[in-house]
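Every protein is a chain of amino acids, and every chain bends into a shape of its own. The protein below has been through that process, and both of its lines are reproduced in full.
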Amino acid sequence: MFKITLITGILVLTGILDAAVYAQETDPVLTSSAKYSMPESALNAEIGGTVVMGISVDATGKPARAVLISGPMWPCGADPAKALEELSATLTETMMSLRFTPGTTDGKPDEKAIALTLQLKNPKLALVPGPVDPATGKPRPTRISGGVLNGKATELPKPAYPAEARTNRDSGAVSIEVLIDEDGKVVRAGAVSGAPTLQYAARDAACRAKFSATTLSGNPVKVSGVMTYNFVP
């Protein structure tokens, strides 16, 4: 498995990718590690969460290309275009520094495409402990996981179908990671899967969804989860 560790705001990538073998065909295996520090602009823009990087590894084990496929999360209503651009550029630079044992086709080294899923932890988004519960002596939870949230929405706007996606005949499911505040408002969102041309439209729809307030033992809490949108051409 690909292991990810955060040390004082630095993302450390270590480990190997699972390799599937079918008729002498294998995926690249990571043989190096790298440290990644989020740009200050991304930290200040409250960017974080899941990102998926696509990497094409050549027959020598060096990345030939790297691109941000999906993610991260950022606040609804914000448009941190420059910070997202800097984040993508620095992630790409880090991915290009990795080294792999090359993948194979028919037992021979060959260029292969893989995807790496990373968790970007922004120190500015660290959970603040809740007040201590007198009954347990422990801090009360301030956030819970709600799983798939579509069916729990009181308002669920449909996403627009982008013209570029229609032209390309892009379709299918897009999953959006969201954070809902104590009042039932979606305050953060980011795509975790789906066609890139559909992700912004799905994220916009998720940000406009409404939910009832959630309480735990009578106390209001935030809710994290996923919303899925299906695009049919």
